[in-house]
UniProtKB/TrEMBL annotation:
It comes from the Bacteria. Signal peptide: none annotated. The keyword Magnesium does not apply. Pfam families: Cytochrome_P460. Coiled coil: none annotated. Keywords: Membrane, Transmembrane, Transmembrane helix. It comes from Bradyrhizobium erythrophlei. The chain crosses the membrane at residues 12-29. The keyword Methyltransferase does not apply. Residues 46-178 form the Cytochrome P460 domain. InterPro entries: Cytochrome_P460 (IPR032033), Cytochrome_P460_sp (IPR038142). This is Cytochrome P460.
Length: 185
């Protein structure tokens, strides 16, 4: 009987060791697998987002920031903007691309005769890309939106992402979205 108990104990210890090893492997690899996702929301950079259609272009200028910005939308977003559908349907994804704005000496030289006094500005370095993902159930606590802010392909920290929804609260009447569809020229 003692031999059977010892064998059972060895079996349980071996099985337990395997379970611990498996759990440790999952724990160690988990952060790496999710390192491309935004904290809190789990938003990742959608493949092919640069090929999405344009929603709008704008400029943000403060005493510290001078940026040119473009908002792009997936097919669901574009359809909702065109139909003026508020709230936006689940599956809507909006990308906001931000660049630092600088004067263009080359453009200014060319434009001086045709447009005296004109000043031309162009994008310089990329600042970041942000995403809003609509899933009314998953993100119910934040108006149905999940957020992702990425610089050089890496998500910002948790503190940055905690501020996302609060920033969008002033746009609550437009389903927390600042962008409005730019009219066709």
């Amino acid at each position: 009987m003692l031999h059977a108990t010892t064998s059972a104990l060895k079996y349980c210890l071996a099985l337990g060791s395997c379970a611990v090893a498996a759990l440790c492997t999952l724990y160690v690899t988990r952060p790496t697998a999710q390192s491309n996702a935004s904290p809190i929301y789990g938003v990742t950079i959608p493949a092919g987002y640069r090929d999405w259609k344009l929603i709008a272009v704008n400029q943000l200028k403060t005493d510290k920031v001078d940026q040119l910005r473009a908002q792009l939308g997936n097919e669901i977003a574009i359809k909702a903007f065109k139909e003026r559908k508020i709230p936006f349907p689940d599956g809507t994804i909006i990308a906001a691309l931000h660049w630092n704005r600088v004067p263009s000496e080359d453009n200014n030289k060319v434009l001086v005769d045709a447009f005296p006094g004109a000043q031309s500005f162009v994008v310089e370095s990329a600042v970041n890309v942000q995403f809003m993902v609509k899933d009314s159930k998953k993100y119910a606590a934040t108006g149905g939106w999940g957020f992702g802010d990425f610089k050089d392909g890496r998500p910002g920290d948790e503190a940055l992402h905690k501020a996302c929804f609060g920033c969008h609260v002033p746009a609550k009447a437009h389903d927390y979205v600042f962008a409005h569809y730019a009219p066709q020229p």
